[in-house]
Specification:
By secondary structure, the protein is α+β, with helices and mostly antiparallel strands. Helices cover about 40% and strands about 15% of the residues.
């Protein structure tokens, strides 16, 4: 039975991926495992009480196990009570049954990505963005954007980046002071460090670099390396008098340096606050807008996931990522799981209509 089909009172016996497993002890010294079980349709939290060393091996994170249990309602949320588990031959697993994928097919997302890249008119911006993406393209197309909470599925990183690009394109039409090239380029590469931070779409975990460094610092380091390889920092090697002249004229060598610096700033500041992991706060229009778009896109998907299985008129469980608030589900609420963003055809039409907009309006460079 698919996880999305489970309801209160169901008896379950079938294979599920152990997306997470943590040990716990109650106030009465009763041991238990807190599990996140997953298939391609979604996830469900589960408990295995009085676990044994054998249970720890069966329910190892990243493995698929045969699970017998029952579904209950706990704190207004579906939860599975696990009775027993059995190990499975991992070499014969069809992982497509257990790893959720983006709600838009990979071919369409790649075509959207190519269209957005091609729409960047500043050749120096495009070169920086394309060179960085090409380094990680194989992972960028397939990787999740998180271990949990939001976009934690195969293709989630690209899906998240493209939804942000859709938002950025619309926002630039409303606020023409924003530089569209910087906005589109920035959202496409803002999470590039996650290709190193995360282990991959199957049993996603943090890598050693992910645990110790994090995707913001990783992405910044990779971007700077690319910028140096492309000679975007040659400006710094000029004599001071020549620097002043080049900056005053907004000469190409200064232009490339300013692009590199502002893009590094976008990567460093895109979480918006120090408490959320950004070492610097947004200090340009584009950096501020991208951090807000990133936050919005993540929270909309967190809410979709939390509303799943909740009936209209009821509330979700506490959502940790949203200040542990309960959210009410109105009767007018739309179905969860609908694809975000604009279609490839809509994107192309929007780009055609933008031909009527003074492209240089609001340009920083």
């Amino acid at each position: 039975m698919l996880i999305k089909e489970l309801k209160d009172g169901d008896r379950v016996y079938g294979p599920y991926l152990v997306a997470d497993c943590k040990k716990g002890v109650t106030a009465q010294s009763k041991t238990y495992l807190t599990l996140t079980l997953q298939d391609a349709s979604g996830t469900i939290e589960a408990r295995k009480w009085d676990y044994t060393p054998e249970d720890e091996a069966i329910f190892e994170k990243g493995k698929v196990a045969h699970v017998e249990g029952s579904v209950i309602i706990y704190s207004n949320h579906l939860q599975m009570k696990v009775y027993t588990g059995e190990s499975m031959d991992q070499s014969s697993i069809d992982w497509s049954l257990f790893v959720p994928s983006a709600p838009v097919d990979a071919e369409t997302m790649k075509a959207k990505l190519d269209t957005y890249i091609e729409s960047i008119r500043d050749e120096d911006v495009k070169k920086l963005v394309v060179t960085l993406l090409d380094r990680f393209m194989n992972k960028y197309l397939r990787w999740p954007a998180a271990v949990r909470n939001h976009h934690n599925f195969a293709g989630g990183l690209l899906y998240h980046s493209l939804t942000m690009a859709d938002l950025a394109a619309k926002v630039c039409r409303i606020y023409p002071s924003l530089n569209r090239d910087v906005m589109i380029g920035g959202v496409l590469i803002h999470d590039i460090g996650k290709t190193v931070e995360l282990s991959g779409p199957q049993g996603t975990q943090f890598t050693l670099q992910g645990k110790l460094i994090g995707h913001i610092s990783i992405g910044h380091a990779e971007l700077r390396e690319v910028a140096k390889e492309l000679h975007y920092y040659d400006f710094l090697d000029l004599p001071d008098a020549e620097k002043a002249e080049k900056e005053a004229q907004n000469d190409g060598v200064f232009h490339r340096y300013e692009i590199a610096a502002t893009f590094e700033h976008i990567l460093l500041s895109h979480h918006g606050k120090h408490d959320f992991g950004s070492p610097v706060l947004p200090l340009t229009r584009e950096a501020l807008a991208i951090s807000m778009i990133d936050d919005l896109d993540a929270k909309m998907l967190i809410l979709d996931n939390s509303y799943a299985g909740v009936k209209p008129g009821e509330t979700t469980a506490k959502i940790f990522a949203l200040d542990e608030r309960y959210f009410y589900k109105p009767h007018y609420a739309k179905e969860e799981g609908l694809a975000y963003g604009t279609s490839l055809e809509e994107e192309k039409k929007d780009l055609e209509s933008e031909e009527d907009i003074p492209w240089g309006q609001g340009k920083l460079f």
